[in-house]
Amino acid sequence: MKYYAKLVAIDPYIEEQATFDFGQYQLCCFINSSACALNQDNIYLLELNLCFIDKIKPELSGDKHFSIMQQADTFVHHINGYLFENRLILSNLVFQDDLFYDFAYLSGDFIKFSVDRLSIDILNNIF
Question: What's the confidence (pLDDT) of residue 83?
């Protein structure tokens, strides 16, 4: 899905790693591509996606709160959100992926799982 987000920080050692502010969440992301130069505190139009290196292993969650938490200093994030058809809802963020259709039996419930990284493609510098 496409979002506007503010660039908070660029990792000085890993050039593909950056932290973006999406309003409710500040997320450490892996930059797949960028159509423009990056400057801290600028706002960008970007596409945010979940990236699974291994298979996704969602399970029913008893926690009815939206959350996304980074695992230490890695790209891995632990997610708790509401699954509706092929969309995972995290309050102000929505991840859409046909992969979620494989878990239709969990649709309409909160689920939890880990994602290997949050990948972004930066489409445009807004200001």
Answer: 98
